[in-house]
Amino acid sequence: MSRLGTMARFEEPEDVKPVAECKGCNNLLFAGEEVVESKGKYFCETGCLVESLDCSYKTLGEI
Ligand SMILES: [Zn+2]
Fold it and tell me: How far is ligand 1, taken at its centre, from the CA of residue 15, in Å?
């Protein structure tokens, strides 16, 4: 005998569409994430922004 069950489908909480894409590393960015925004472009972190500007972090030595 099988139970007469109406199994509710499981809602996938991970089924969230990305809102934007990091212009530096192309990571998908989702709503609620903290991102870096520059002139309408989004970056997952400042490092990606810096790289996209053709810059890099440097440590200055003694002059
Ligand atoms: Zn990135």
Answer: 21
CA distance 6 to 14: 23
The answer to whether 48 and 24 have CB atoms below 8 angstroms apart is: yes
pLDDT tens digits for 17-60?
Answer: 899 999 999 999 999 999 999 999 999 999 999 999 898 889 99
Count the neighbouring beta carbons within 10 Å of the beta carbon of residue 53: 11
Q: How far apart are CA 26 and CA 14, in angstroms?
A: 19
CA distance 47 to 24: 8
pLDDT reported for residue 21 = 96
Tokens of 47: 């490092």
Query: 46 alpha carbon to ligand 1 midpoint, in Å?
Result: 8
